Amino acid sequence: MALYRTYRPKTFDEVIGQEHITKTLENQIMNGHIGHAYLFTGTRGTGKTSIAKIFARAVNCLNPINGSPCGKCENCLKLQKDNDINIIEMDAASNNKVDDIREIREKVKFMPVDVKYKVYIIDEVHMLTDSAFNALLKTLEEPPKHVIFILATTEVHKLPQTILSRCVRFDFRLVSVKELVKHLRKIFDLEKIECDEESIKLIATAGEGSVRDTLSIADLIASYCQEKITKEETLRILGTTDYSLNIEFFNYLRDREVGGILALIDRMEKEGKNLAVFSKDVSKHARNLLVIKTCENANEILNLPDDVFASFKEQADSFNEKDLIRYMQVFSSAENELRYTLSVRLLLETTCLTAMMGMDAKKN
Fold first, then answer.
1. 342, 344, 350, 355: CA torsion to nearest 10
2. Does the predicted model carry a pTM greater than 0.90?
3. For 152, which DSSP code?
4. Which of 146, 207, 224, 302 maximizes the CB count within 10 A of its CB?
5. pLDDT in tens, 132-148
6. By the 8 A CB rule, do 335 and 283 touch?
7. Cα 292 off chain centre by
8. What 3-state class would DSSP assign to 63?
9. pLDDT category, 183, cuts 50, 70, 90?
10. What are 132-138's contacts with CB under 8 Å, separation 24+?
């Protein structure tokens, strides 16, 4: 099984980065104040479906432990099976018609089998049609006492206000790199996979706040590297650039060395690096330098190795904020174009030259 499936959380304590949600749900279960409709919204891979399943087991658990399912009682063992009829998962992306919701309206009348609650988890609920939303509205407003609805979406702005007003809303946050690093380290130890600290941070950063994406990337790299994951192999698979390459590139920008930049791009292309990904890395590097220049607790935000942070700080001192903001704007704007252009190299070179225009870096 994939790592993200193997290490999917089974209790609220195992969920990372969403304490504001898990604590509230635990308290509701312990106090018996359980709602009839919940809305989970947030970026992909942050735990919406996992928490929905934990909650569905917890409200039916015979011996809940601090609001979490015990995992041992008859109900917990029964509800852990994927085909249990008391936890109904529906993907609204492929079941978005009014007839699909009418079918739910008919089935909610039936009592759950051997447990207290029947739980409906509707994923990607924003994909429902307008008529389907209207059909769901009445059921959400006055559902039977034995039914709980959990709606999950990545695009909450597409939901009608009438649906939003009938749900208890929870906003899922992106998980910090620090928490992802800790989670990865624990999993690699359990899997007996050797991995250096820099590689773990690179994988966690590439996950961009999504636990599922982070573990999928880790799975891919672990499969390629087998027993030992190295920084070099991680950079190669991710297609990202080494810190030293970013520093070299920004030195050329600062000194307006057009020839140096063009030669560096040529070298990267010959080495098979993804130039579109490099443009994204440049935006991130400009942002990192800006954080270092403007924030007192910069490395708490960036979570970089000490030697890398020292190199970044030295470089940040040679730029002003105006230029760094300009780099962020120019290279971020070029990211979409670089994905679809027929000549990535030419567009990247043009973007680099545009970034040099009007810059006002300090000279050493």
1. 140
2. no
3. E
4. 207
5. 898 888 888 888 899 99
6. yes
7. 24
8. coil
9. very high
10. 132/96, 132/97, 132/98, 132/100, 132/101, 133/159, 133/160, 133/162, 133/163, 134/98, 135/98, 135/101, 135/102, 135/105, 136/101, 136/104, 136/163, 137/162, 137/163, 137/166, 138/105
